[in-house]
Write a structure and sequence with these properties.
10 strands; eight-stranded parallel beta barrel; TIM Barrel; globular; two-stranded antiparallel sheet; alpha/beta; single chain; 289 residues
């Protein structure tokens, strides 16, 4: 497994540490300075370097291009969805040229207008329309399901919020081999899943990991979604169990920290980067200790 720095900011919930840097060269320089092995890319920026310049910079600093944001309006109106397809194709082409073959998609676990059945069918049909782009540019989608109940407690309808729901969507859309998980330990544990669920996952599903720790004093039905701690600080979240189960499955891909933590957000940027690096190194050391 290898470390990823994510300080991009986009509407697709790539997940960041509370700090946003829009200059790709600065992102790469900081990743190199603090010994991260990979970086995420925001292809929506108007001032972004050319694909050639991005690839050259990454090569010079020995950094992996890991993931880019998912610009498809998958859960919006049909018009907005259709208008977003050319944007996705362009970004998929750019990403492929840079050497980045993963995009990250957040699945809202609720709906205010469509029941589960109708939302599932709509989402599955729309994802089928993306397959030719994924195939053409060798792109995979990492889907993030949201485990805690907080975000769907007051909605009219619920939607996918588990491992099995996500796998069913991938199968229904014909995206096995093209779709998998942006797998957050917080969502894994607070969806009611266990190591057994990881044991039964094909390793090809696992595309990207996020680590953090939960707040003490809650159970899986009351734990907040948007308040977390750095991994291995409270012991609420089974970070070691999660990592070792995935490592034993054969996963060797990217790992990031997504703390949703005000203390980290309030730190000066480079202090936050050093802190996140140290905690991520501590997590990864569990696999070799």
């Amino acid at each position: 497994m290898y470390s990823v720095l994510n300080i991009t900011d986009d509407i697709t919930h790539c997940g960041n540490i509370g700090h946003v840097v829009s200059d790709f060269k600065q992102i790469c320089d900081l990743a190199h300075k603090y010994q991260f092995e990979g970086v995420n890319i925001d292809l929506s920026l108007s001032n972004r370097l050319s694909t050639y310049e991005c690839k050259q910079l990454l090569g010079q600093l020995n950094l992996k291009p890991v993931a880019f944001g998912f610009p498809v309006k998958l859960f919006d109106s049909q018009k907005e969805f259709e208008e977003s397809l050319p944007v996705f194709e362009l970004q998929a082409k750019q990403a492929s040229e840079i050497g980045c073959h993963l995009t990250l998609c957040y699945i809202p676990p609720f709906s205010h207008d469509l029941n589960f059945n109708d939302r599932f069918i709509q989402t599955s049909n729309r994802l089928r329309e993306l397959k030719y782009i994924l195939d053409k540019y060798e792109i995979k989608i990492g889907f993030e399901f949201i485990g805690p109940t907080e975000t769907r407690r007051n909605s009219k309808y619920d939607f996918i919020h588990t491992i099995d729901g996500t796998r069913a969507l991938i199968a229904s859309a014909g995206l096995y081999g093209y779709g998998g998980f942006k797998f957050d330990v917080h969502h894994w544990q607070n969806s009611g899943a266990s190591v057994l669920d990881i044991h039964h996952l094909d390793v090809e599903y696992i595309l990207y990991l996020e680590l953090n720790d939960g707040l003490a004093g809650y159970d899986i039905f009351t734990i907040p979604e948007f308040e977390r701690e750095l991994p291995l600080t409270t012991g609420v979240t089974k970070v070691e169990e999660f990592l070792k189960a995935l490592y034993n499955k054969g996963y060797r891909g990217p790992v990031a920290i997504e703390p949703w933590n005000q203390e980290i957000k309030s730190m000066p940027l480079e202090e936050a980067l050093k802190t996140v690096r140290d905690y991520l190194a501590k997590c990864l050391s569990l696999l070799t200790g």
